[in-house]
Fold each of these.
Amino acid sequence: MAEPEIEKLRSVDDHLNLVLDTVQLLAPMELPITDVNGLTLAADVVAAMPLPPFDNSSVDGYAVRLADLDGAGPDSPAELRVVGDIAAGSVYEGILEPGTCARIMTGAMVPHGAEAIVPLEWTDGGTESVRITRVPERDEHIRVLGSDVATGEVVLKAGARLGPRQIGLLAAIGQVHAPVHPHPRVVVLSTGSELVEPGAPLGPGQINDGNGPALTAAVNALGATGIRVGIIGDEPQGVLDAIEDQLIRADMVVTTGGVSVGAYDVVKEVLSTLGTVQFTKVAMQPGMPQGFGTVGEDRIPIFTLPGNPVSAYVSFELYIRPAIEKMMGRETGPRRTVTATCFGAFSSPNGKRQFARGVYDAVGHSVRPVGGHGSHLVGDLALANALIVVPEHVTEVVDGDDVEVIVLDGGGR
Ligand SMILES: Nc1nc2c(c(=O)[nH]1)N[C@H]1C(S)=C(S)[C@@H](COP(=O)(O)OP(=O)(O)OC[C@H]3O[C@@H](n4cnc5c(N)ncnc54)[C@H](O)[C@@H]3O)O[C@H]1N2
Ligand code: MOO
């Protein structure tokens, strides 16, 4: 008997390429530095002031002139008159005269005439006069003006990812705003008349909307802004209106459900009329039915994901995550994998790339499959921390095989 013909499906790589060719880097804007965590800098930042902004002490001690300490040592301390007390934030007026010193605190401005700071530990701690038993080098314990950052220096380059350390630097140089590619606003809509808001009573045949909360969390975990609109039914005009209403505030729209071949697959029906959204079968499992294109005058990218929760989540990791990374100006591309030894056996469909759920052990470089193939298995999905990638031509994974694994949750892109 002849082999059944395998339906021609779009490859995972071709689908990702289409997505990445379509989505665009978001236009730069100036945002307050309190709102730029995780964002990408859109232009070089030049320091408008030096750091440190003035010579200051790195220790609690005494500001001294070196000539006064000639020959000082443990058995022959130098004795100096203490003429001032300089706290951080205060200034010593005048010049330090020969034979005198000033008590100085960490971060306080070094007085004119001082050439080094003697740490408290090298002295008897005197307040009227002080005995010093060790001589510092010139400039020792002085943090010199501009020695960290010079005025006019490029301190952060366009393309840098802003995190706590970079935001601290921006604040230190007095920058209130930063030019960044902003957070993509990703609107998440769940279609299906069987869906109920979690917590509300379930009628016969109804289920809780799991996809909306899951995908919104996935968007937020990337540093973009997830906007969960909630459940929209199965009525074509209602679905169309809901999508159009959201375009004003969306940089991307994500829907789940209604894209296979059923009589109520409304997303497919509605968006087919708008023209630019293609509905395809991608050679992957789960996540075969995929819709992608743009909607509205601003050509907002839209992903119409399959309703099955595992399919929707895996689709997010494979396509939406790289798309959001591109919009944010981050490095992007296919998900990276690591090689691991698979403890467990399972089958895989011929001609489709399978993304089996697994528990990855980074120390042992191994992975254990969890759950079965079913795209509804959210209990097992929640236990997983990795996707085991089984190539299209492989139909069996046997115990001890080396497999490629996408590490989820902070495993990098
Ligand atoms: N005759 C065929 N039937 C199906 C095919 C096919 O090729 N021929 N493909 C199957 C595959 S694969 C998938 S994946 C699903 C995709 O279906 P839809 O995207 O049309 O999604 P729905 O039918 O609306 O729902 C599927 C499934 O998921 C549940 N669901 C939907 N939304 C949610 C949500 N927000 N939270 C939790 N669960 C949700 C829904 O109740 C269904 O059980 O089609 C197969 N069928
Ligand atoms: O391709 Mo579907 O996403 O397996 O359930």
Note: Residues 1-5 have pLDDT under 50 and may be disordered.
Amino acid sequence: MGRYAQLVIGPAGSGKSTYCDNVRQHCETVGRTVHVANLDPAAESFNYPVAFDLRDLVSLYDVMEELQLGPNGGLLYCMEYLEENLDEWLGEELTGYGEEDYVLFDCPGQIELYSHCTVFRSFVEYLRRDGWSIAAVYCIDCQFVAEPAKFVAGALQATAAMVQLELPHLNVLTKVDLLNEPSKAALEQFLVPEACVLLGELDRSTGPAFRRLNAAVAGLVDEWGLVSFAPLDYSDEESVGDVLAQVDHAIQFGEDAEVKIRDLGMGELGGEDI
Ligand SMILES: Nc1nc2c(ncn2[C@@H]2O[C@H](COP(=O)(O)OP(=O)(O)OP(=O)(O)O)[C@@H](O)[C@H]2O)c(=O)[nH]1
Ligand SMILES: [Mg+2]
């Protein structure tokens, strides 16, 4: 038993809010309930019903006006304000959530928030102390990994977020439905990249000055096995379910229920496992 959450993060426009809405709809279809909370102080509209909203605590546009800040400084101010008010605001918003509740947190798209700032680390620590199992879902546009040089940037950004948050982590490639069939096939090699293939591709697409860097990146993939991507293709009915199953597994959602059924079966069947 527990409470479950996904922190849906990633670069601007990578499809975080769309992911939240699609997962919510998928869950509705299969008879599950998930709630979606907005953590983006600059958000303007939503396709999903908003369970609770950071803008009720602090809104980017008010901050920009009152403190004469630009959009990026304003956003950082809002997130620091959230960090300072975690106990009060998040504590209050989460009081209504009980055992087996599942919340998706739709986060802002500034990647420095996940690699350099402490707000999400504090956020995660707060949830953990409060008994939540959490995974990070890092959304990234598939076009940003389908070429070797872009792959390096995308993979390193995702890894930086993983290191900073120390959460079970799934990289999700969004917008795969926009690719034609040959491009989808070409994407395969980047899903679970093999170091030697990656190194060959990197060396082919960059000048000799980058050989050592390429080898180091391929070594990161090889030695740590850190970088893999799950494709999300909204034109494929099973895709959302497949991604959700991976995240559920990472936070052990549903596994307690299986144990309970097994316990019940053992009792009824005189100790035989089912
Ligand atoms: N075809 C297609 N469009 C997508 C997909 N994911 C997102 N989009 C579109 O991409 C645009 C940005 O999507 P959002 O879900 O708003 O992205 P976001 O990461 O929440 O953006 P920010 O919150 O601004 O950082 C929207 O026009 C979406 O409709 C996808 O998998 N396929
Ligand atoms: Mg969004």
Note: Residues 264-274 have pLDDT under 50 and may be disordered.
Amino acid sequence: MTDHAPFPRSRPRRLRRTPALRALVREARLSADDLIWPVFVCDGEGATMEVASMPGVIRRSVDLTAEAAEEAFQAGIRTICLFPYTDAALKTDDCAEAWNSDNLSNRATRAIKAAVPGMSVMTDVALDPYNAQGHDGIVRNGVIVNDESVEALVRMAMAQAEAGADILGPSDMMDGRIGAIRTALEEAGMQDVTIMSYAAKYASAFYGPFRDATGSSGALTGDKKTYQLDPLNAEEGLRCVARDLAEGADMVMVKPGMPYLDMVRRVKDAFAVPTFAYQVSGEYAMIRAAAGNGWIDGERAMMESLMSFRRAGCDGVLTYFAPEAARLIRAGWE
Ligand SMILES: NCc1[nH]cc(CCC(=O)O)c1CC(=O)O
């Protein structure tokens, strides 16, 4: 970096004086193209359910999800990510509902692709919505077994790809799943399906409201520390990113978002690949709760948080704020 001239030759405030000058030297931009909207899908028709710990977020039945996708598309959102709220009766130890071609997530994928062909659909590859044990992998005698879980994840991923998913998002953190899914896609002639790997995914308290939203918090026994990363480990996160890229991931993700922006920057600098972050449910809940209490300006805090992802090096962000932020961007937010 070049040294700047000493004061008063250098007066950095010169470039901050007017909106035009500030815009001229702005380094990063936030556009609706950078936003991926995670949505919760529930059973029924014309049905909505509120999520208590995520004010403003609702679960929608498949028909209303397709409608919401259409509206979001009008606002500029071009990728949507599906999470099913699965009936407890469909949760089993073998997680078979995960690869049912007519499960909620696959029905929603087809409905969205039919209603809004230009919308990219991303799906979640992990067994937790379908697992009686609430874990992302199959549990045998209290142990989350890796290789058997990977086989199940491959079946799940293939069902999602067949339903028309554009982006598969393995969020399970089992070893070897990216390679196994990539191989299966190639063998099935579905070589154009993309994979966004949840590569550096940490064992986080910030997922709490999400587990309520998908109904997996009740089922979960214990924690996810044997497969999700230790929050203190940065190098291990980088190794996971390297591994997932070597196995065939097209894009990688860091998760959660705001407490892990250092990881975003390190991943982007080290690998120079499409890099994403997930601003998770707990981050959303914090901003909403503080805003709801009048303690912060919710709109400005939302936009600033999203801009911080871009500054840190993210190509895009998964955020529950996506439609709201897209509308503000449309309206000329600076
Ligand atoms: N495979 C589970 C999954 N996929 C996305 C999230 C969290 C998203 C959020 O908190 O918004 C989780 C939760 C978890 O790992 O327990």
Note: The mean pLDDT is 96.
